[in-house]
Amino acid sequence: MLSTLFHIPTRLTVGGLSLPLFGWGLLLAVWALAAVVVVGRSAVRHGWREAARTRGVPLAIVGALVAFILPALDDGAGVPVRGYGLMLLVAAAAGTWLSIVRGRAAGFDADTILALATEVFLWGLVGARLFYVIEYRAQFLPPGRSLVAALPEILNIAAGGLVVFGSLPTAALAAWRFAARRGLPLLSLADCVAPGLLLGLAIGRIGCFLNGCCYGGPCDLPWAVRFPPHSPPWLDQAAQGLLPADAAGWSLPVHPAQLYAALDAGLLAALAVAFTPLARRPGEVFALVLTLHPVSRLLLEAIRVDEPPALGTPLSISQLVSVVLLALAAALWWWLSRQPVARVDSLDTFGGGLAAGGEPSSPVKPSSPDRSPVA
User: Fold this and answer.
1) Three-state DSSP class for residue 218
2) What is the pLDDT of residue 158?
3) 68-88 as b/e, with b when 16 or more CB fall inside 10 Å?
4) Whole-model pTM?
């Protein structure tokens, strides 16, 4: 566990002058310059209205983060860089990279995938955080505490606290709106980004390990891990009387459930990539992911002990959501089975361009009639 990696000083000395880095400081000036470049580049390709629509909201969120949120995180030693938050950014970058590589093979340019990834990532964060805050609302809004007072803690995503399944409704809605707005085939986009989502999840789970959340139950296996005092597993074990309340030692050995989940997501990402040349219809890669991830989550939740049973069932909230997702996956497979076969050979393993028959494949443009249109 390494919750805080280091601290960033809030002021920077330039030429003998001490200038603020966050708030209305140097970082905001860099953001403003970058915003002009990004919006201008997008406007050249897609027009000012589309550039403002797709880039404006994400850039505004980043600007608000720099101007208002980061200064509020200063703990006296500077702004802490959390292991969880850093891995979240690495996860987003890695997932976007894989999606861009696959998108090129399918005829989607990098700007399109980058714009989609930005919208899906940000709206996914909103859903995942909202789900977590609602599930653990007593932690954020105890009696006598106002929403305004709790807002800095609620917005401090870098310190941990996201529910992956909570991101699905908002991320899916963002993807659907993006595809409809640009007239792109939704199922082909979903196939393109599905392995990238799993790759991002794999890296994000390493962040969970650094943060100490999403932990497993006690075990005596050779690879069991201990967490330091006042970490989530330690606090949980102390509350159950497994440790003395004033214990100075580390937690009991527990399953590294976060690393199990990281390995699982990485393997599923590789499987989805390998399955791509075998898919016979647009949407089948996404359907495979929608099938296998809930199954693995049901099994992994049996090892985790951080979520109690929900809604009067022996299952956690994540397991209940997994059951719902499996039902949706079954419905999607049924619907896909009724669609005409249209193999998408251009989305090969890493966009190398070899079709199933060994000939170089031609990228299929987003408007190609053999792709399922957006309803």
Assistant:
1) strand
2) 66
3) ebbbebbeeebbbebbbbbbb
4) 0.79
